[in-house]
Amino acid sequence: MVSIPEIQIPLSVLGSTAKSNSIPLLGFGTASWPFGESEEITKGSILTAIKLGYRHFDAASVYQSEQCLGEAISQAVELGLIVSRGELFITSKLWCSDVHPHRVLPALKDALQKLGLEYLDLYLIHFPVSMKPAGGYVVPFNQSDLVPMDFKSVWEAMEECHKLGLTKNIGVSNFSVRKLQQLLLTAKIPPAVNQVEISPLWQQKKLRKFCEEKGIHVTAYSPLGAKGTLWGTDRVMECEILKEIAKAKGKTLAQVCLRWVYEQGASVLVKSFNEERMKENLDIFGWKLSSEESQKIDQIPQRKAYPGLEFISYGGPFKSVEELWDGEI
């Protein structure tokens, strides 16, 4: 007998009107820092997440989480938590060392092999930069390995992956408005998704507006600040305005952040390996923020958690943080 979760997560259609091409608006992140060091915990947590009702899972080659996710999916089917993989929305990402035209398809095939799947629901270019292939999936990486990305050719290789049916959708991550504009100049298939940092402390209004105009769905990562990771900060969880709203609402601060992102029309990724918090993070749909609370959040001073300093070098493609994010910083 298949377990039916109590919470049904809302969906948003990607790029067409096909319900089968819909993204669940709350997803479960699989990045655990340091990457690849908590495989059994990661696998167990993904299985628990499926049991609780999460259906959207976000992986990446550099996270080294694809195999754990694949094993958890297989186990979930065996246990009757889901009937088939088709009930899930699975995302993975192309790492910089594979952001070369001839490496895109082999990298996707490698990801599918690790996941034990025939196709992805979404395949993203992780960052708008390439790296010498010898750099592999090691983070931190050698900045001297960074090279400019060939937007046109790499995207054509992504389009080929889509045409072959190996991924239902293709998209990008960490792309600014300007970099999206550059990609759209030659793209035959526009990106379905741009996955970027969004939280009440980094609201990305300009980028969200541009994506909405172009029909590009936005997915938010680090909505709680990703405290304790290489790319994270504790500023979101320590924000007094958010604490006040959470207390007045009788909600957790995390629930307020996730609900706020959801109310902006974006899908949101959250990662916790604590079962109680995993349950709490699902409870963002039966209530809403008042216009006064939304106004207060709107006025929070903005500061990006992840500047991407490891991508900045004098001899590389980006010589400043401003160049990497095109002033959206």
Structural description of this entry:
The chain has eleven helices and twelve strands. The protein is α/β, with parallel strands linked by helices. Helix 6 links the parallel strand 10 and strand 11. The longest helix has 14 residues, at 39-52. The chain is globular.
Question: Helices, strands, pairings?
Answer:
Elements: E1 11-13, E2 22-24, E3 26-29, H1 39-52, E4 56-58, H2 66-78, E5 89-94, H3 104-115, E6 122-125, E7 130-131, E8 146-147, H4 151-163, E9 170-173, H5 177-184, E10 193-197, H6 205-214, E11 217-221, H7 240-249, H8 253-263, E12 267-270, H9 275-282, H10 291-298, H11 321-325
Parallel strand pairs: 3-4, 3-12, 4-5, 5-6, 6-9, 9-10, 10-11, 11-12
Antiparallel strand pairs: 1-2, 7-8
Helix pairs in contact: 1-2, 1-9, 2-3, 7-8
SSE order: EEEHEHEHEEEHEHEHEHHEHHH
Specify the overall morphology. globular
Neighbour order of strands in the largest sheet: 3-4-5-6-9-10-11-12
Helix content: 25-40%
Structural class: alpha/beta
Question: Approximately what portion of the residues adopt beta-strand conformation?
Answer: 5-15%
Q: Give start-end ranges of low-pLDDT stretches.
A: none
What's the total count of β strands? 12
Number of helices, where a helix is a run of at least 4 consecutive DSSP H or I residues: 11
Instruction: Specify the biggest β-sheet.
Output: 8 strands, parallel, barrel
Cα Rg: 19 Å
The residue-averaged pLDDT reads 92
Report, as a whole number of angstroms, the end-to-end distance: 50 Å
